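Sequence, please.
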C-alpha cells in the first residue's frame, strides 16, 4: 500500500478527484496518508476532514520559506509518504524541500507546458489566442513549472469559449490526468532520460 501526501491551499478539486479515484479503485493499492494546507480557511481542509482523512494546517504566513518547508517535510516524513501531490498548493517549494523527495513530488498545471507557466495559465492561453490548450502533470524540480512531464491532456479552444468555460473544461481533464500520472509513478512504469519520460510496464516502486 502506497501512501500519498496531498498539499493544498484552496478548494482542492484535484485532491477530491484523487480521493475519489482511490475510493473507486482507479488508483489501486494507495491511500491518502495526510492532507496538509498552509491556509486554515482553505475549503479543501474542511473537505478532507469530512472524508475522515488526517489533516494538518502548517501556516506559512510570517515564516521564512526554509522554516515552513522544514516543518512540512517533517510532517510528510512522519506519515511515511511515498508520493507528494500538489493540488492547488500556492507556494513555491524550496530547492531543499524538493531534494528531500527526489522524483516524488507531482504538480498539475492548467496549460500544455512549457507554454504559459505561472499563475492564471488558462487566462494567459485564452488571451494569447491559442487553438488548443490543456493540462500537464509533471515532476517538481527546483524551477517553477519546469520538471519532467509525465502526462499531458489536450483541450481544444472553441470559438464559443471564454476564459471561464475553457478553464472548466481544462479542469475536467486535470482530474483524469492526475490519476493517470499517479499510477505511472507509483507503479514504477517509467524511465527518465534527461527530460524525456518514457512509460513502460514497470514494477511497483
Amino acid at each position: 500500500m502506497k501512501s500519498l501526501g496531498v498539499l493544498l491551499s484552496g478548494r482542492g478539486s484535484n485532491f477530491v478527484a484523487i480521493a475519489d479515484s482511490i475510493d473507486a479503485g482507479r488508483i489501486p493499492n494507495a491511500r491518502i496518508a495526510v492532507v496538509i494546507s498552509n491556509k486554515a480557511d482553505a475549503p479543501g481542509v474542511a473537505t478532507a476532514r469530512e472524508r475522515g482523512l488526517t489533516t494538518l494546517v502548517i501556516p506559512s504566513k510570517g515564516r521564512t520559506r526554509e522554516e515552513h518547508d522544514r516543518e512540512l517535510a517533517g510532517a510528510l516524513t512522519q506519515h511515511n509518504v511515498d508520493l507528494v501531490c500538489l493540488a492547488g498548493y500556492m507556494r513555491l517549494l524550496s530547492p531543499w524541500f524538493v531534494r528531500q523527495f527526489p522524483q516524488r513530488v507531482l504538480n498539475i498545471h492548467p496549460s500544455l507546458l512549457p507554454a504559459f507557466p505561472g499563475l492564471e495559465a488558462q487566462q494567459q492561453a485564452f488571451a494569447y489566442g491559442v487553438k488548443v490548450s490543456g493540462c500537464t502533470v509533471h515532476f517538481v524540480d527546483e524551477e517553477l513549472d519546469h520538471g519532467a512531464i509525465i502526462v499531458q491532456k489536450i483541450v481544444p479552444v472553441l470559438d464559443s469559449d471564454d476564459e471561464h468555460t475553457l478553464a472548466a473544461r481544462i479542469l475536467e481533464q486535470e482530474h483524469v490526468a492526475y490519476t493517470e500520472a499517479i499510477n505511472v509513478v507509483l507503479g514504477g512504469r517509467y524511465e527518465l532520460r534527461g527530460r524525456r519520460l518514457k512509460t513502460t510496464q514497470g514494477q511497483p516502486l
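The mean pLDDT is 94.
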